[in-house]
TrEMBL record, chain A:
The family this protein is said to belong to: Belongs to the ABC transporter superfamily.
Pfam families attached to this UniProt entry: ABC_tran (PF00005), oligo_HPY (PF08352)
Compartments, record wording: Cell inner membrane
Protein name: ATP-binding cassette domain-containing protein
InterPro entries referenced in this protein's UniProt entry, alphabetically: AAA+_ATPase (IPR003593), ABC_Ni/Peptide_Import (IPR050388), ABC_transporter-like_ATP-bd (IPR003439), Oligopep_ABC_C (IPR013563), P-loop_NTPase (IPR027417)
Chief location category: membrane
SUPFAM superfamilies: P-loop containing nucleoside triphosphate hydrolases
Record organism: Salinimonas profundi
Keywords: ATP-binding, Cell inner membrane, Cell membrane, Membrane, Nucleotide-binding, Transport
Domain of life, per lineage: Bacteria
Keyword check for ATP-binding: yes
Membrane topology, record value: Peripheral membrane protein
GO molecular function: ATP binding
UniProtKB/TrEMBL annotation, chain B:
Residues spanning the signal sequence: none
Pfam families: ABC_tran (PF00005)
Descriptive protein name: ATP-binding cassette domain-containing protein
PANTHER family reported for this sequence: PUTRESCINE EXPORT SYSTEM ATP-BINDING PROTEIN SAPF, TRANSPORT ATP-BINDING PROTEIN
Annotated localization: Cell inner membrane
Top-rank taxon: Bacteria
Domain ABC transporter: 5-255
UniProt keywords, alphabetically: ATP-binding, Cell inner membrane, Cell membrane, Membrane, Nucleotide-binding, Transport
Amino acid sequence: MPMLDIKNLTLEIETAGTRVKALDKVNLTINSGEIRALVGESGSGKSLIVSAISGALPQKFHLTADRMSWKGKSLLSMPTEERRQLMRRDIAVVFQNPGSALDPSATLGEQLEESIPDELVEGKWFWQRRQSRRKSAISTVHKVGIKHHRHYLSAYPHQIPTDISQKFMLAMALISQPKLLIADDPTRGMETTTKTQVLKLLTRLNQTKSLSILFISHDLLAISSMCHSMTVLYCGQTVESGRMKMLRKRPLHPYTKALLDSAPSFQNDLPPKSLLPTLDGTIPSLKHVPIGCRLGPRCPRAQRDCVITPAVRRIHDHTYSCHFPLHMEKL
Amino acid sequence: MNQLMHVSKLVFRHDQNKRWLKKPEVFQLGPIDLTVNKGETIAIIGENRAGKSLLAKMLVGAVAADEGEISLSSVRYNAAKRRSTRSYNASNDIRMIFQHSTEAMNPGITVGMILDEPLRLNTRMTEKERRARIEETLIKVGLLRDHVYFYRHMLSDGQQQRVALARALVLQPKILVADEPFAALDPSIRSQTVNQILTLQRELGLSFIFITHNLGVVRHIADKVIVMKNGRIVESGKTETIFRWPQHSMTKKLILAYQSLVPQQKIT
Ligand SMILES: Nc1ncnc2c1ncn2[C@@H]1O[C@H](COP(=O)(O)OP(=O)(O)OP(=O)(O)O)[C@@H](O)[C@H]1O
Ligand code: SF4
Ligand SMILES: [Mg+2]
């Protein structure tokens, strides 16, 4: 049974009197012990999915879903307090803008110690408990690769450089020893060595603590080196989802193919300085989404039928939504 | 090949008073020696805080150096003496796209005005000439004439990146410097931008210096790679050589980290 199971999640946003569908029937499942990647063009709604799961949606957003459950329990009908507890203990989220999620008026150490759940603090007396908190704060920042803990734990959020605050956000998420980590672009702008450190840490936690991870990123290299499965989003719709290996080998959806082609490192026979294969144009704005398949205007395979929204089709654990998928002959 | 720019013994020392973090060691960048040829692509890689962005800013004259000499289009400048960008780079031969350029785009003015500003400040072109130049540049970077009337919120990230590119190109520089031009872009826009730059280089013979963490793109488009650590160039050379036979431990570390991510066997 999947840990997190989302079926047909639709999110409508009201802007200037009209309603736009920012997410349209999105499906996403995360099994226990799985690292799943969520990829897609910027503006395709990845961060919106994160907000929807965390329950941090503004009033003007209308959310509907056929199913949205955590270990079989519906998140939508769950009492607020229970959901809060769940987000505090079992699901940890690293939001995309590292700095903005921190309280500017408290030191990093204070904020980190505060997010340790009481159950994890050892000791009976307050000084023992204080020491225990201090100890796990220090060990967690070491774990994520922040070296000068004395310096950084007593610093305020605005005083630390971006890459440190990215790592710190990861520490904040991991300190409660969650079952599922949702990380929205956690390695953006990191240099390669720091990035591999972070990826290694996540892989290790996945293997030793069987931490499930939803890894959101534009970095296909990082994704393919670490993730077991991948969900591809385009313009608010899930276009393809399946095991990483399968998707790499035989992407069925034209967008997935374009996405994989865009990373020069994936193609061994690419002559240096040759033009990269890419789709024309850019993702449409939400006010002007094409009818039918939203990739339509940019899709090299588009035909007349594409004005009808393609249904989700399934081959084993590989799902896709396209009328004219690639690589069908090989299946 | 003809040499466009030569940098010798460029040095920058960090002013300690400006720093909140009072570590004992003083940050020094350089001495840097560097040659840029026509049509050449140079990638600068290295750790965070290795001084890559600072070097880029010094090359374009946005930050003054403390010592050193730059010769650009066979004119020599004392990099330490200049106070403003006016005297240096007066012919606008080198231009820069800053990091986070899309966030830096002024939301209150149109694309046309954004592109007009450098022309008004740096040239004596008439309004009509400027207008023609702007349209020409927009088309060059893959935008439309109509985009002059657009404001930032009407453009996608990729289009904003192109506006930043257009803004750097509107003065027709010979060298383009870009700080992390690909980091914030999503995959398909990233390859569009890469293609754009490759095409521009073919058409205009533009030299391109860029800072990046994306070694995949480095390997694909760079002729030369410069590796920086703690404000110094620790290794430089042809891309192929650097990737195959890295010498310095820093280079080895970066290349190894990259290669550990690259799928080893070929997929069919
Ligand atoms: N508060 C809001 N009001 C109106 N539209 C919004 C709001 N928040 C997000 N959107 C729209 O929803 C869409 C999806 O945004 P989202 O932030 O989820 O993209 P993303 O996939 O996370 O992109 P990136 O890769 O750049 O992080 C965008 O078109 C965005 O403009
Ligand atoms: S449904 Fe049509 S337009 Fe959409 S991805 Fe498939 S072929 Fe392209
Ligand atoms: Mg996002």
